[in-house]
Automatic annotation (TrEMBL):
<protein>
    <recommendedName>
        <fullName>DUF883 domain-containing protein</fullName>
    </recommendedName>
</protein>
Length: 85
């Protein structure tokens, strides 16, 4: 076997190794991306559930104490109005 043939064989092996490495990197990147998407969806679902729960609690509090709620909203409006002027 000549040096040229050995070099061609080594180059082909290197190409094969590089293809495998690129494929591995691609799969790893896809997995990390999918993990991130799943984590974001889970966090979104948790936040949405918590917001819904809090909204119901606030609604129940307003129904239980309507006058207090109106006065509190009025007071908060006055304070924000003064601060934003």
């Amino acid at each position: 076997m000549s040096d040229t043939d050995a070099l061609k064989k080594d180059l082909e092996a290197l190409r094969s190794d590089l293809r495998e490495l690129a494929e591995h990197v691609r799969h790893s990147g896809e997995k990390r991306y999918q993990d991130g998407v799943n984590q974001a969806r889970h966090a979104y679902d948790d936040l949405r559930s918590e917001a819904s729960k809090r909204s119901k609690e606030v609604g129940a509090e307003i129904e239980a104490r309507p006058f207090t709620s109106v006065f509190a909203a009025f007071g908060i409006g006055l304070v924000l109005g003064k601060l934003l002027r």
